[in-house]
């Protein structure tokens, strides 16, 4: 590479920001958000009922948790490559499915721990007030568990946004495609742009979850204010 070439070429950013190319910054950013966002949502939708089942039948928690830990320990790239035999070709589902399993592996214990953090005297008070089991779950248990669950969701959001980039090695990596492009061309600008955009995306996702937690748990802010 020419020693005089700047580390970051600003003209590349403007030329590739939004055009008809499937490798434009906007196109890859949208693909990245899709492949990272869907597992976060699906993981939460699966983990909450699964966690409730494990709380209801405690003997299920250890085997399910062990299975989830085993899944979480699997490297992402081999899973992506394994799913190519199922999906037939590189597509968003090839990345979304493994990341959903990873999300469930983190969120399911968070749901169990969150529900376990509900004080027993609070449950007894709700029952004494005539709350049915379902009403107590919705009005008491789940709201109190929200901070713990959303703490797990923050971990899932950041890890999903990061792991999507690995999918570039099978042709479905969103912003991660800039890393392979930079390596192939020995040109640093796409890699720097990809890193910055991924970090910004992770910060935005984390900020959204923190804002959601503040909205869903106003009593926490009130307690801190006193």
Number of domains: 1
> What is the name of the CATH topology?
MetI-like fold
What share of the residues does DSSP label as strand, in percent? under 5%
Q: In the CATH hierarchy, what is the class? A: Mainly Alpha
Mean pLDDT: 88
Helix/sheet category = mainly alpha
Please report the total strand number as a whole number: 0
- The level of helicity is over 70%
CATH architecture: Orthogonal Bundle
Helix/strand order:
HHHHHHHHHH
Q: Count helical runs.
A: 10
Low-confidence segments: none
Span of the ends, CA to CA: 60 Å
Please describe the biggest sheet, giving its number of strands, its sense, and whether it closes into a barrel.
none
Identify the overall geometry. Answer: elongated
User: Whole-number radius of gyration?
Assistant: 21 Å
Topology:
Elements: H1 10-15, H2 25-56, H3 61-73, H4 76-87, H5 92-116, H6 120-128, H7 133-163, H8 177-185, H9 188-216, H10 218-225
Helix pairs in contact: 2-5, 2-7, 3-5, 4-5, 5-7, 6-7, 7-9, 8-9
Notable characteristics:
single chain; MetI-like fold; mainly alpha; 226 residues
Structural commentary:
This protein has helices at residues 10-15, 25-56, 61-73, 76-87, 92-116, 120-128, 133-163, 177-185, 188-216, 218-225. The chain is elongated. It is mostly helical and 226 residues long. The protein has a single domain (20-225), classed as MetI-like fold. The mean pLDDT is 88. It has 10 helices and no strands.
Summarize the structure.
The protein is mainly α. It contains ten helices and no strands. It has a single domain, classed as MetI-like (MetI-like fold, Orthogonal Bundle), CATH 1.10.3720.10.
